[in-house]
Amino acid sequence: MSKLLIAGTVAYDSLRTPGGERAKILGGSAMHAGVAASLLVQSRLLSVVGGDFAPEHLDFLSGRGIDLSGVKIIPEGKTFAWSGFYEKDLEQAHSLRTDLNVLNVFDARLPENYLNSEYVFLGNIDPELQLKILAQLPERKFAALDTMNFWIDGRKTVLLKAIAEADLLFINDAELRQLTGEPNLPRAARSLLGGRLKYVALKKGENGALLIGAESIAVAPAFPLADVLDPTGAGDSFAGGFMSWVSLRGTEADQLRAALVYGTLAASFNVQGFGCERLAQVSPADIKTRYNEYKMLTSAPELNYFLQGVRQC
Amino acid sequence: MSKLLIAGTVAYDSLRTPGGERAKILGGSAMHAGVAASLLVQSRLLSVVGGDFAPEHLDFLSGRGIDLSGVKIIPEGKTFAWSGFYEKDLEQAHSLRTDLNVLNVFDARLPENYLNSEYVFLGNIDPELQLKILAQLPERKFAALDTMNFWIDGRKTVLLKAIAEADLLFINDAELRQLTGEPNLPRAARSLLGGRLKYVALKKGENGALLIGAESIAVAPAFPLADVLDPTGAGDSFAGGFMSWVSLRGTEADQLRAALVYGTLAASFNVQGFGCERLAQVSPADIKTRYNEYKMLTSAPELNYFLQGVRQC
User: Fold this and answer.
1) Residue B219: which residues within 8 A CB-CB, separation 6 or more?
2) Ordered structural domains, chain A, with CATH
C-alpha cells in the first residue's frame, strides 16, 4: 500500500468565473491534491477544519479512500474560507476575502499512524510548518513542496531552508523567477538544486509543465481545452496526481516523466469543473481516453525519416 | 523543386541583449524566414533594400539558394533599419529606433518568375500589401500570413480580409486574444476560421506552439534552452521552417504536425545566436541531433501500461 501523506489546507471556497459561480464548495490545496491522488492510491490527509465543516464533506473524502485521522476538527473554530473571482481570461484569481480561521492554530502535528509515511506532498502553507512536518518523518523517501509568492515575499529564508529539505519543488514560472532573480527557467531551476533538492517541477498553467533536474529536462504540454470552467486547484491536482504516481511507481527518471504527464491529465480534469466536481467524476476509462488523445496531440511525428532529404547549404 | 515565396522585410538590426550586442546585422522577417527555409529548400524572396545594402549580404543570401530576383534595390534609398534592446528576461523587444526607409515605397509587385509560386509565407507587413501579393498568385496552393499588434490596432478590417484569404495564420497568443476578444486560445483560433482560412499556428515563444484547425489541435512545446542569446526573428524562423517543410511535403494533417515540430526546431537554433548567426551554421546533422533530443524530452511515456492498475474509487 502506498504511504502518501498530503499536508495542506482544506477550505470552503466561494467563487465566480465567467462560466458560473459556487458558494462554500470544497477547496484547499490538500483537498485538491487528495482528490487527484485518490484516482490512483489511498493517501493520508494532514489538515485542519472547523466545527462548520459538513459531515457529508468528511464522508466524501473518506469515501475516496482518504485517511482523515490527521484532519483535526476544531469545533469552536471555522474552516478556512476563501472567496474570489476570475476575469474572462481565467488567468488570475482575484481574492475578495480570505478568512484563515482555524488555519491560525494549525500545529501540523502528525498522528501516530502517519509517522511511517514515505511519500509526502506539502501543499502551500507556511514553510515553517512544512519543515516541521518533514522533521516528523524519519522514513520519508521523497518529499515534494509547493509554495507561493506570499511566502517568497515574506519568508524567503525559511522557505529556502524548507526547499533544501525537500526532494522536489512545485512552483510556477513567475514565482521561480521571483525566488531566484534568474529569468531563464532551466537556469533558475538549477540554481535551487542542492541540499536534498533534486528536481523542480515547473507549473505553467495552460502552457504545461517542465521537470528540471541537474542534467535532465522533461516537457509536458497542457492538454488543450476549450471548456475551462474553474482553474482553482489546478496546480494542486497536478501535484496530487504527480505524487500519487510516484508513491506507486517510485522515483526512477522514467517514472518521474510519467508522473509529470499523469499530473497534467489530472489537472486537465480539475479545471473542467468547479472545485473538484469534475475530477471526482473521473473514471479510469476517462483517464485512459484522455491519455490516448493527449499522446496523439503532443507526440512529435517521426521527422528522421523525412529528414533524409535535408540538403547541406 | 519547391515553389516557396517568402515576402516581408530585410533589415539592418542593431541590438543589445544581456548576452551581447551587434550593430547593423541582417534582420527582417523575410530574412529570418528565408534563412530558416534554406535548410530544406530553395525559396524566392520578395522584399526591398536600399543602396546601403552590402553586396556580401546579397551574396550570403543567394549563397543559401535564395532567389533574390524579387528583392528590389533602391540605390538612392536606405535599407529598413531597427534598433532596440532586450531586458534580462528577453521577453519583449524595446525599440529605440525604427527607420522604415525604403519600406515606405515597397510596392510588393512580383517579378515574372515568381508568379507560379505555390507556397507563400507573408511576413509581417501591411495587410494591404499581403492582399496585393496573394492577388498576383493564381497557382498558390497554401499561403500563410503573419501579423502583429500594430496592424490589429490600426488596420483590423483589411487585416481580417487578408486573413480570410490565407490558408494559415501565424500569430502569438496576446495578438490572437487582442484580435478576437476571446481569451480561450482554441476558441479564439476557431472563431477566425472560415473563408479560405483553415489553421491558426499559435506562437507562444518559450511555451511552444499550437496548430489549431476546426476539429484538430497539435501541440509542440519549445525546445528548452539555457542559452538563449537573441529572440529576434524566432517567430519568423519558426514560420520559415514550417513553410519550407510544407512546400516540400504538402499539407496533409501529418505533414502539418511535422512542420510544426520542424519550425520549432528551426526557431530553437535561431535564438541561440544574434540575428541568423547560429541558424546559418546549422547542418543537417545538427537538426537530426536536436530532433532526437526533442523527441526524448517531449514524448509522453507509455502510461497505458501502467494505468492497468488504476482503481475505481
Assistant:
1) A221, A224, A297, A298, B208, B209, B210
2) 4-307 (3.40.1190.20)
Nearest CB to A313 within list B64, B304, B310: B64
Give the integer Cα–Cα distance in Å for A49 and A273: 23
Mark yes or no for CB contact B309/A206 under 8 Å.
no
Rounded Cα distance, B112 and B185, in Å: 40
A218 CB within 8 Å of a chain B CB: yes
Please say whether the beta carbons of A164 and A157 come within 8 A: no
Q: Which of A4, A6, A231, A249 is nearest to A140 (CA)?
A: A4
Give CA–CA dist B313/B310, Å, rounded: 9
Which of chain B's residues have a Cβ under 8 Å away from the Cβ of A287? 307, 310
The pairing of beta strand B119-122 with beta strand B142-146: parallel
What separation in angstroms does the CA of B200 have from each of B56, B167, B282? 36, 9, 28
- Return the exposure string of A64-90: e unless at least 16 CB atoms fall within 10 Å of the residue's CB, then b: bebbbebbbebeebbbbbbbbebeeeb
Query: Which helix (DSSP H) or strand (DSSP E) does residue A47 occupy?
Result: strand A43-50
Give alpha helix (H) positions in A38-116: 55-63
Cell of A308: 533524409
Q: At A24, list the grid cell.
A: 462554500
Residues of chain A where predicted confidence (pLDDT) is lower than 70: 1, 304-313
Residue B173: closest CA among B205, B195, B146:
B205
Question: What's the pLDDT tens digit per position in A91-106?
Answer: 889 999 999 999 999 9
Mean pLDDT value across chain B: 95
Closest CA–CA distance from residue A160 to any residue of chain B (Å): 23
Residues 6+ apart with CB under 8 A from B116: B3, B139
Residues of B in contact with A312 (CB under 8 A): 283-284
ipTM over 0.90: no
Mean pLDDT for B202-212 is 96
Closest residue on chain A to B244 (Cα): A310
The H or E element containing residue B285 is helix B284-298
Partners of residue B291 in chain A, C-beta under 8 Å = 300, 303-304, 307
Q: Which residue has the cell 541568423?
A: B276
β-strand partners of A81: A12, A99
What size, in residues, is chain A?
313
For residues B275 and B230, the answer to whether their CB atoms sit within 8 Å is yes
Burial of A57 (C-beta count, 10 Å sphere; 0-12/13-18/19+): middle
Burial class of residue A305 in the structure, from the number of CB atoms within 10 Å of its CB (0-12 exposed, 13-18 middle, 19+ buried): exposed
Strands A199-203 and A209-212, how do they pair? antiparallel
- The nearest alpha carbon in chain A to B302 belongs to A258
A313 and B38 within 8 Å at the Cβ level: the answer is yes
> At residue B238, does pLDDT exceed 60?
yes
Task: Kindly state whether B291 is in contact with chain A, defined as any CB-CB distance less than 8 angstroms.
Answer: yes
Residues within 8 A of A (CB atoms), B 147-166 only: none
Q: Give the Cα separation of A127 and A157 in Å (integer).
A: 9
pTM for the model stands at 0.92
